[in-house]
């Protein structure tokens, strides 16, 4: 999870008369899907959507520094939340000597992050923090994410998660009731490659059966997501910059004005 994930989880449109008058954007998307299925409209602009997890699909339910601090009080953590956040970012930006940050359950890496952020090396404290983020109630989906995923899936778009994460990810997606929407879930700790390595993107594309030129990736990191995806000819939209909501993602994929 990049530092951006430490942030707090955070019109009416009139359709042409031929489509039946005023419709919401979700309603329009469904009409476009139905028209496409019936041969009356174009196919989705992209055949596949790859999504980053932490910081994009998964948002922390409350700021990381606040969580570290509140749990840490029982273990003597007195560092201010601002200092905790600075340490958290510092740990993520430091070079990692091993091939993967997240190996298996990711504990070695996260132990360093928690210690750097809080100056606390108490094993019980670390374990409580680690377990806190192993449950879905510590996370949330951006507004409209589940509806967008369902509409894209109904439109025939193949969906994949491509994430630098540890083995907790599959359970988190299940806890948040979205794991069954994905045709592939590719986790760095399982496949042995981390973004921006081309292999992790190619594994996802192979699993969903879509060429890079026919898919788009959405993530929140300029290097890991955008540079990594672009290196294999995969378009990337940066979350929070190119797209800010899941309805924007839906509208750009289910457009009638763009075809691949």
From TrEMBL:
Biological classification of the source: Eukaryota, Viridiplantae, Streptophyta, Embryophyta, Tracheophyta
Domain of life: Eukaryota
Protein name according to UniProt: Haloacid dehalogenase-like hydrolase domain-containing protein 3
Cross-referenced InterPro entries: HAD-like_sf, HAD-SF_hydro_IA, HAD-SF_hydro_IA_REG-2-like, HAD-SF_hydro_IA_REG-2-like_cap, HAD_sf
Pfam family, one: Hydrolase
CDD domains: HAD_dREG-2_like
SUPFAM superfamilies the UniProt entry points to: HAD-like
């Amino acid at each position: 999870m990049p530092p951006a994930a430490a942030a707090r989880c955070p019109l009416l449109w009139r359709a042409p008369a031929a489509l039946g008058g005023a419709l919401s954007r979700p309603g329009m998307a469904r009409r476009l899907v139905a028209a496409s299925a019936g041969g009356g409209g174009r196919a989705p602009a992209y055949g596949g959507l790859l999504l980053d997890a932490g910081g994009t699909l998964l948002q922390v339910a409350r700021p990381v520094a606040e969580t570290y601090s509140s749990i840490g009080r029982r273990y003597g953590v007195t560092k201010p939340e601002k200092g905790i956040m600075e340490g958290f970012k510092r740990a993520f930006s430091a070079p990692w000597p091993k091939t993967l940050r997240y190996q298996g359950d990711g504990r070695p890496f996260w132990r360093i992050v928690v210690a750097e952020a809080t100056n606390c090396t108490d094993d019980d404290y670390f374990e409580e923090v680690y377990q806190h983020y192993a449950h879905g109630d510590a996370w949330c989906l951006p507004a409209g994410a589940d509806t967008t995923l369902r509409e894209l899936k109904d439109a025939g778009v193949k969906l994949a998660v491509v994430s630098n994460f540890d083995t907790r990810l599959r359970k988190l997606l299940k806890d948040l009731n979205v794991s069954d929407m994905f045709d592939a879930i590719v986790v760095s700790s399982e496949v042995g490659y981390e973004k921006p390595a081309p292999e992790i993107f190619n594994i996802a594309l192979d699993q969903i059966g879509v060429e890079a030129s026919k898919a788009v990736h959405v993530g929140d990191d300029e290097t890991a997501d955008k540079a990594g995806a672009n290196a294999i000819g995969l378009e990337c939209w940066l979350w929070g910059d190119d797209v800010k909501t899941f309805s924007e993602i839906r509208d750009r994929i289910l457009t009638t004005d763009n075809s691949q």
